[in-house]
Design goal:
Layout (H helix, E strand, L loop, with lengths): L8 E4 L6 E4 L1 H6 L3 E3 L2 H14 L4 E7 L4 E2 L2 E2 L12 H23 L8 H6 L1 H15 L10 H4 L6 E4 L2 H9 E4 L4 E4 L2 E9 L6 E4 L4 E5 H4 L6 H5 L1 E6 L21 E8 L13 H4 L5 H14 L1
Amino acid sequence: MPRQLPDPIYHFSSDSSSYKKTIVEEVRTSEAIPVSSLNDLIKMIAEISHANNLYELYYRGQDSDYKENGKSSILPSIFRGLSDGIDEYQERHDRMTRYQQLMLRRSGGKGSFKGSNEIQQNAAVRIAYLQHYCGFEFPTFNIDENNYDKDLITTPVLDLTTSLNVGISFAFTKYCEDSKEFYFSRKGFLFVLGIPRLEKSIRPFRKERMIITQLKSVCSPYAFRPFFQEGIGASEYPIPRRNINIDNLEHYDFSKRLIAKFELTRGERSGFDRILIPVEYLHPNEDSFKHYLRILRMDAMN
């Protein structure tokens, strides 16, 4: 399980103009701090960064503050909504494994390309690719709506970013099912996690029980998305296997690394619009790796 941040940490409270000493559980159970000004957010982030200087701050933008038992929950996709328990988890894990095998087959020998060595050598890279691309891309590949959940690939990797701008952009990004288009909403949530400082592109932190992959350093140059998103993949270390105990998903919850959470509101004078990154850059169409994954899916269907 990802190890919880050691207490105390330093965090803003919703009724305070300065950070205070607190514990992670208090941050998880508290309401997100409302922010309607980019300048105010940057000031608070700067204070938090200075006060928690043992850690790098990583960001995650979401449309909501999802909670379990009254506490914020930030689970990797493979652990979310397991209504059928271990059977559903194993089905998801098998699907992820099958696509890893296809990646190995398609990136070796005559199919090699720049960046394929990393795919061949490291499961963390393969899984990070699948997580970073497949959650958003595969719904656009003519997936049968009656088998939507079965066609998606979920993984034990959580998408994070080192970029505050990217985190804010994802916080406001929504997907319209009717028009099949992304748009920027008025509200969103930004989560700030404390992670040990990276010394390598792929770093297992045994004491912290997690592995961090800096995607732009290990991905193929044909994969544009990780560069635009300044993406980071975070997972439990070692990477969860097929046979695990899922009775307590708290073990895999990255909200145990939570330092702060903000509820953001866009307005005419909020300043957020100045730094929002258009969806066509966060999810560029001219991305050769997206087409590579389309080929993998065709293989999987045969």
